[in-house]
Every structure is written in C-alpha cells, then in structure tokens.
Design a protein that fits this description.
Blueprint lengths: L5 E6 L15 E2 L2 E2 H9 L5 E6 L4 H4 L5 E4 L7 H11 L4 E6 L7 H17 L8 E6 L2 E2 L3 E5 L3 H10 L4 H5 L4 E4 L1 H8 L3 H4 L6 H17 L2
Parallel strand pairs: 1-4, 1-6, 4-5, 7-10
Antiparallel strand pairs: 2-3, 6-9, 7-8, 7-9
Length: 218
C-alpha cells in the first residue's frame, strides 16, 4: 500500500492588525506559537513550509523551513493556501493558521488518517478535495487538509475576488468531520484546540490557559 504524502503548511501571511504584533511569533508557554504548530505537525507530514507575505517572510527564515510567498498579496488566507499548493510536491497539504497555540499532534495525525482513508476508498476522480473539522457546528477551514486538485477552483476564486472560504469550499468535494467524531477518535476538545488569537485579550487568555495547564501538570 502506497504511503499518503502530505506537506504541513503554517498560514502566517496575515497582517496581525488587530493584535498589533506578529501573532505567529508571540510566545505561549515556552515556545512561539509558530514553533508549537511546527512541532505538532511534524509527526504527521513529510515536510513543513510556511506560507507568508513579502513583509513577514524574513521573520521566519531562522526556523529553517521553506517559505512560500503570496502570489495574490493582501487576499487573506485563500492566498496563503494558494501559495502553498503551488509550492508543494505532495498531493495533499494540512494547513494550520499561525494563531492557534493549542494544536496537538493527535489532531494532525487524525487528519492524516482521514486523508489516507479517503485515498483508499475512492478513485482519483471521486476523491474528496478537502477534509474540514467542525467545532460547534462551524467549519474550521484554517486547520484542515486540502488536495492539489482544489487549486483551479481556488485560482478562479482569487482572480474573481471571491475571498470567502465558504465560497471556495462550496465548489469542492468536502468531507466534514463532526466535533463528536473528533472527540471520540482522539479525545480532543475542539473548543480548546481550535482556539485562535486575534486580539491582545485573546493572547492574554491563551497565556493564562497555558499557565493553568502547566500548573495542573506539575
């Protein structure tokens, strides 16, 4: 049986305007958020790259990862996914936004498992193009898996200025993963693992949550 080849992608091309500082480089616990994400991804993927923009790319070079810069600057997360799909050499990517400090290896391994299952079950022309977890009934497309075959629809959306993730996903064959399935298969609390930081108060909450977790583990 052939191994399913996947590249991990950290989406780190945003402007962090509401935070007022680069979210990826903020420390939550002992590591910067981007370092935590890379570490959690490592067990599930063949390689990891960082999707950035021309203004943020230099800040990530010390991490020693390939950097894919936006081809549609200023167009949001769709542009980062687009840059990644152009750069990778694997048929699948697993993406994570750079502001999710509580991602876990178990989550990425579970996504990898679902992707491999889809590869076994379906012929190429019927294969899903995206695997998207749900949290409280809401899709989480910034912590999900995408197939290279989704690239043409993505380019069409970007050229047309349709930048909502849902508009693109509606053009694809998507497998959604229920929150209950995620909990049953991995024990992961979706409300915790999908927590993201947009504003300074979110960052303070993340630091407090991390501190509580570390204290509870002592």
């Amino acid at each position: 049986m052939m191994e399913t080849l996947i590249t991990g992608v950290v989406l780190a091309g945003g402007q962090s305007r509401r935070m007022g500082a680069n979210k990826a480089l903020l420390a939550v616990g002992r590591e910067k958020v981007i370092e935590t994400i890379i570490g959690a991804m490592s067990a599930a993927v063949q390689d990891i790259l960082i999707a950035a923009n021309e203004h943020t790319a230099d800040a990530y070079r010390e991490l020693g990862r390939e950097i894919a810069c936006d081809r549609f600057p200023g167009q949001g997360p769709l542009s980062g996914i687009h840059a990644a799909l152009h750069a990778v050499k694997t048929p699948w990517i697993i993406v994570a936004a750079c502001d999710m400090p509580f991602v876990s290896p178990e989550l990425f391994l579970f996504l990898r498992k679902i992707v491999a299952e889809e590869e076994r079950l379906h012929a190429e022309e019927e294969n899903v193009q995206a695997v998207i977890p749900l949290e409280d009934g809401r899709a989480q497309p910034l912590l999900a898996a995408y197939h290279i075959s989704a690239l043409p629809e993505l380019e069409d959306a970007l050229h047309a200025g349709r930048l909502r993730m849902t508009d693109w996903l509606n053009m694809l064959r998507v497998r959604y993963i229920a929150e209950e399935t995620l909990l049953q298969e991995t024990g992961i609390d979706a409300g915790h693992v999908f927590f993201n930081m947009n504003r300074p108060e979110d960052y303070r909450t993340a630091v407090e949550k991390q501190g509580d977790g570390e204290a509870g583990g002592c």
